[in-house]
Predict the 3D structure of the following.
Amino acid sequence: MKNLLEGIEDVLLLGPGPSCVPQEVYDALSCKTLGHLDPYFMTIMDGIREMLKQVLKTENALTVPMSGTGSAGMEACFVNLIEPGDKVLILINGVFGMRMSDVAARLGANVDILEFAWGTPVLPEAVEKKIRENAYRIVAVVHAETSTGVMNPVAEIGKLFKGSGTLYLVDTVTSLGGIDVRMDDWGIDALYSGTQKCLSCPPGLAPLSFSERAVAKLNGRKTKVPNWYLDLSLIANYWGAKRVYHHTAPVNMLYGLYQALALLLEEGLEKAFQRHRKNHLALVGGLKELGMEMLVEEPWRLPMLNTVLIPADVDELSIRKRLRSEFRIEIGAGLGPLAGKIWRIGLMGHSSRQESVSRLLAALKILLPTT
Amino acid sequence: MKNLLEGIEDVLLLGPGPSCVPQEVYDALSCKTLGHLDPYFMTIMDGIREMLKQVLKTENALTVPMSGTGSAGMEACFVNLIEPGDKVLILINGVFGMRMSDVAARLGANVDILEFAWGTPVLPEAVEKKIRENAYRIVAVVHAETSTGVMNPVAEIGKLFKGSGTLYLVDTVTSLGGIDVRMDDWGIDALYSGTQKCLSCPPGLAPLSFSERAVAKLNGRKTKVPNWYLDLSLIANYWGAKRVYHHTAPVNMLYGLYQALALLLEEGLEKAFQRHRKNHLALVGGLKELGMEMLVEEPWRLPMLNTVLIPADVDELSIRKRLRSEFRIEIGAGLGPLAGKIWRIGLMGHSSRQESVSRLLAALKILLPTT
């Protein structure tokens, strides 16, 4: 039988994730597997946790990579914190806010939503009004809305919950490693992310962190977490000093994350943010020269996820297919109401390079109809 | 900062999993990452599904690797099938049966358990009596109980549910690839496994398969699956013809699974089972020569997970530590009531080799006190 792996091409990944992976991370993935209770593997786990705390700018003891992709991180945050009937407010301006609301409702939360037009940010003043009218146990928002390319004002929203009993839950799947994330300074109580965006590691793990307030809510539950696999009270005992076996950790994926975090910290967070910003500006400038406009107003544009309006005369699917087949470049389609209207161009982590921008622009110049 | 990955040793993994990984699978893990909606990646997904069906001996259309470790497979089977109040019977003779009962109870099932002494198998006649007294929506059992080394009579138990409305759920985490698993012939409706045992792939994925009856129960639910991440009605649309985006699949881990399944089918399932049996017999013979006895009676012994009684004069922890530090061999400790009483010696997948047996026996000969 033909081995399909031999046919895998080296594709420039400029979609909404996964992003390109540096060779060092590929090498890490194929280090020899150790047991999940091996003493040396424990030192690697400790290293991952310490680096994650640096990247998240948090002192939270409960900082772990969950054994699933970014959406498992979302599921984990909600399933550990929600008890049936809890009042939860979800701020929605794209697919991932909607997903949060679906996840929370399935878990028996009493969900309110506050919606904003796709392509525009969440407005803190609207949130302030809403929380004056109702007391919420949890308010949740997406930092970088991958479906629209909008950056939400996570720091400003966080200020609204100071001194209240509300837990603040933030999705940083696409933002982490590409723009600043300050978990402690911004008053975030529960945060999850993914490895396959600006951390430049293949998909498979979801970094997660809980503040002391979030841990108190978890420990004060009247009922067991209705999800054994993602129960953080058990997982904390494996990642903590006790090292109690819970499930068999995804050892090789954790090697990859270790290496990816080490590379990011070696470059330096600020330098990585600047790199994302610089390549974003170059892309936006180049797209403008090709006569294309961005979906999102300048102040709210994400540097790592660029949403560009597709000109009326363009067959978007045909161009995406040709980018992949003729130029070995992947870009992303629009989702939901934005399907057919935008492309999503990721410049995330190792994909955020000058040559990514120039290769894509050169290809688009050839493929787009001349006017 | 020191890169801890450089210090990873090549350990002979003879614990209860993960097992040793062939070089081809390591190479597969580090193939270039493709997008999770990439057309070529879709062909790899199709290849994985077809090979999984062969290994499971099933025609089930809903046969997929879940994006989590083996325990995520357990969680997925129960969360998709259980609706609150459903009567569920769990057959327990070790840690993993107990875990099933915990998982099911958290999901609101009305759980009955039927217990058997650890180290002995589930008795079909006792199950038959129990199901005559009560009607169950689901009966669940572990094929290869990794905590005790016992093989449960899964085929015989399955016959009891023929023509009934009971769904039969089986854990094949440790058995798959090492002993025969015949999903369709044995009337199994829901099955999950793990990659890090006899499939010789690092931990991180959970093969899962649902019969048409199980799919009917899923589709007939009155409420949404209370776990978005593991909702098989959504995941089926990603793995099926529609290719609807659900979550970002763990692309590189799936490359590893593809390669691991290809290697297993290349060897041939029957040959793999014979290899496991042969090396098991060699190990048992060698342990006997060293004066050690097995926990489990001969007919119920698992070939891939060997539980041996620790002689009274032996400091078990010290020997396990020396095996790891001086001989680079990992073996497993006992769990629960068997802690300190047994070792668990895995000969799973790529670890089931003649040289594994001889290297371990030679080391034990040096380390065990002479009488």
About this structure: The longest helix of chain B spans residues 269-289. DSSP finds twelve helices and 13 strands in chain B. Chain B touches chain A through 78 residues (CB under 8 Å). Residues 23-265 of chain B form a domain with the Aspartate Aminotransferase; domain 2 fold (CATH 3.40.640.10).
